[in-house]
């Protein structure tokens, strides 16, 4: 068995473009030595093994390439770890792989057999003419890290989007709106969506000459746990609430009045996301909402009539684009 002194290792870690947030050299050293409970990494002058770790950003995620060699450069073994998520999902698996490789390093490939003393040139030439078939080098072992492995250093993500909205039951007739939203995606808790909406004015007529005009602005807050989350698409359920500011202006009456009211509704819906190209995705939403506050708007006087009352259940749909900010 090799003595511990022969297992001392010189480590180098390289971060390619886009992989700067991956595990630092000092962090990797501490994690490996903590597992093996001994000193492992030393300057190159004291080492008998050399370990090179390279982080490479790919189109689908991040790859960590590990190469272990003797100090003279003879290759001893290679590994490749890949993840489609944040590169900190590699942290634990990388430290474990390195610890196993340096604790019991693979043997060097056997050197070519030396010439037999006394062998003639003709015999040597004959031997060279018919060399033994070379043993193919094994391909690097590639280990794919599952997407649900925790990435402890993954930062919060943010997505910003704009969408066209169509809603029924909130205002007289089906009304369009423009929505802007920001979705925050923290680690370990549900994504949080903040949304603002501005609806096109709606009119409720009493007759051809009189009625009321409705203007609605709203702000919403929702929690959107993921039902399915892949790099190219995602599905989420959203539970939230919306607070609105409703302005109603009467027209064509003997005494035109203006009303200012707050609206409040609970919402439940589902959204889907399809990546078009990095960082832009197509987003759609379909949901229902129950107004907690339902005001009834009516004209007074001799020909009193109800102009509008919100539906007990309203339906809305959205389609738009979103961009991943980071």
Protein topology:
Elements: E1 9-15, H1 25-36, E2 49-57, E3 62-70, E4 75-83, H2 91-103, H3 121-129, E5 141-144, E6 157-168, E7 175-185, E8 192-199, E9 202-205, E10 211-223, E11 226-229, E12 233-251, E13 258-277, E14 280-291, E15 297-299, E16 305-308, E17 314-324
Parallel strand pairs: 1-2, 4-5
Antiparallel strand pairs: 2-3, 3-4, 6-7, 6-17, 7-8, 8-10, 9-10, 10-12, 11-12, 12-13, 13-14, 14-17, 15-16
Helix pairs in contact: 1-2
Order of helices and strands: EHEEEHHEEEEEEEEEEEEE
Percent strand: over 45%
Average pLDDT works out at 87
Architecture (CATH level 2) name of the largest domain = Beta Barrel
Uncertain segments of ≥5 residues (pLDDT<50)?
Answer: 1-5
Biggest β-sheet: count, sense, barrel? 8 strands, antiparallel, barrel
> Ends: how far apart?
50 Å
Radius of gyration over all CA atoms, rounded: 34 Å
Tally of helical segments: 3
Q: Any idea what the shape is?
A: rod-shaped
The counted number of beta strands is 17
Write down the CATH topology of the largest domain. Porin
Notes on the protein architecture:
The chain has 326 residues and is mostly beta strands. It folds into two domains: 4-144, Rossmann fold, CATH 3.40.50; 157-324, Porin. Helices cover 10% and strands 49% of the residues. It is built from three helices and 17 strands. The strands form three sheets. Strands 6-7-8-10-12-13-14-17 form an eight-stranded antiparallel barrel. Strands 1-2-3-4-5 form a five-stranded mixed beta sheet, with helices on one face. A two-stranded antiparallel sheet has the order 15-16. Helix 1 (25-36) crosses helix 2 (91-103). It is rod-shaped. The protein starts with 8 loop residues before the first strand and ends with a strand.
């Amino acid at each position: 068995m090799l003595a511990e002194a022969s297992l001392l290792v010189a480590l180098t870690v390289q971060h390619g473009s886009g992989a700067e947030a991956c595990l630092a050299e000092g962090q990797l050293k501490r994690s490996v030595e903590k597992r093996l409970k001994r000193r492992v990494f030393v300057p190159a002058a004291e080492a008998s093994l050399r370990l090179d770790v390279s982080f490479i950003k790919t189109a689908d995620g991040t790859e960590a390439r590990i190469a272990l060699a003797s100090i003279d450069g003879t290759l001893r073994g290679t590994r490749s770890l890949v993840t489609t998520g944040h590169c900190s999902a590699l942290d634990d698996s990388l430290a474990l792989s390195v610890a196993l490789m340096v604790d019991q390093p693979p043997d060097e490939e056997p050197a070519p057999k030396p010439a037999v003393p006394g062998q003639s040139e003709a015999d040597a030439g004959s031997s060279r003419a018919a060399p033994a078939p070379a043993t193919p080098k094994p391909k690097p072992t590639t280990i794919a890290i599952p997407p649900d492995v925790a990435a402890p250093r993954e930062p919060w993500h943010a997505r910003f989007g704009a969408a066209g909205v169509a809603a029924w039951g909130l205002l007289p007739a089906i009304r369009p709106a423009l929505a802007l939203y920001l979705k925050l995606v923290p680690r370990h808790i549900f994504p949080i969506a903040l949304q603002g909406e501005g609806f096109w004015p709606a009119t409720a007529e009493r007759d051809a000459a009189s009625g009321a005009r409705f203007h609605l602005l709203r702000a919403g807050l929702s929690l959107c746990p993921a039902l399915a989350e892949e790099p190219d698409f995602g599905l989420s359920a959203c539970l939230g609430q919306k607070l609105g500011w409703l302005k109603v202006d009467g027209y064509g009456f003997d005494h035109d009045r203006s009303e200012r009211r707050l609206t409040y509704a609970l919402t439940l819906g589902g959204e889907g996301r399809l990546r078009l190209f990095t960082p832009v995705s197509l987003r759609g939403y379909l949901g229902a909402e129950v107004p907690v506050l339902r005001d009834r708007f009516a004209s007074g006087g001799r020909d009193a009539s109800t102009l509008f009352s919100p539906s007990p259940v309203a339906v809305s749909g959205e389609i738009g684009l979103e961009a991943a900010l980071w």
